[in-house]
Amino acid sequence: MMFTTPIMTLISFIVSFFTMVSALPVSVRDVYVPPVTYPTAGTVWHIGQNYNVTWDTSDPPVNITNKYGMIVLAKGGIALDYDSPLAANFSILDGTHEITVPNVDPGDDYAIVLFGDSGNYSPEFTITN
Ligand SMILES: *[C@@H]1O[C@H](CO)[C@@H](O)[C@H](O)[C@H]1NC(C)=O
Ligand SMILES: *[C@@H]1O[C@H](CO)[C@@H](O)[C@H](O)[C@H]1NC(C)=O
Ligand SMILES: *[C@@H]1O[C@H](CO)[C@@H](O)[C@H](O)[C@H]1NC(C)=O
Fold first, then answer.
1. 37-68 pLDDT, tens digit each
2. What's the CA-to-centroid distance between 25 and ligand 1, angstroms?
3. Signal peptide location in the record (predicted)?
4. How many independent structural domains does the chain possess?
5. Fewer C-beta neighbours within 10 Å, C or N terminus of the chain?
């Protein structure tokens, strides 16, 4: 599911702008935002446990603008902390990356945001103790 409130669009624009700048030089750029396939709606994560976030890499463009991925936790549709992502600096072509659930308030409106060129939101799922 993709949320496109103006704030998030702005945030992901800013983030993708900076990641784009750091990914120089490339002559031809393709925006690549693979869909998150896990977690899904109905997923329940436990604080302190490890899980593999997965995404669909079946259709990457030839020239990827930014091949480094970053995973950020979001709550209520708002990405939480870009300065301390759950994971960063992995290849966006990996299709999977293991994360540890941080010590956050339990809730049923969490989502994972996978950043490549832009941000792609997973469905909302639950984090519990
Ligand atoms: C990918 O980039 C290379 C080198 O810049 C370029 O020659 C090629 O045409 C690009 N391919 C596509 C599909 O954009
Ligand atoms: C995540 O995937 C890797 C590679 O397949 C595997 O070794 C690891 O055990 C998985 N972690 C979890 C928490 O399932
Ligand atoms: C990613 O790599 C950059 C540059 O090497 C480094 O400054 C940054 O701390 C790394 N981020 C993470 C989450 O490992």
1. 999 999 999 999 999 999 998 877 777 777 89
2. 13
3. 1-23
4. 1
5. C
